[in-house]
Design brief:
endonuclease, hydrolase, 4 helices, Retroviral polymerase SH3-like domain-containing protein
Amino acid sequence: MEYLNRSGIKHEKPEPRGEGRCVLYHKCIEKKWWTEAVSTAAWIINRMSNSVTAKTSYEFVYCTKPQLKNIKVFGALGYANIPDEKRRKLDAKAFKCRFMGYEDGVSRT
């Protein structure tokens, strides 16, 4: 808290739980995915600019702007590629899946 005060940062406690609940309801996703929905909401909130400083929480922590070019909609349907070595000639090249959040430590660029 002391660092926040010295830096002129107003401490706010965003509540991503509400956003996570809305996402689950809107996308008709089972409640067992609630943790991923809340984590994704927090991931996005941390990359939204602050009205006071025009910087994101991410920028304050990592001293660089977040990359948002590959941002995805939670629960969006998509297709994941099946590598050549894991399929035979007439097998499907992809399978249908749903985006369920960002994994820590994985590059999104």
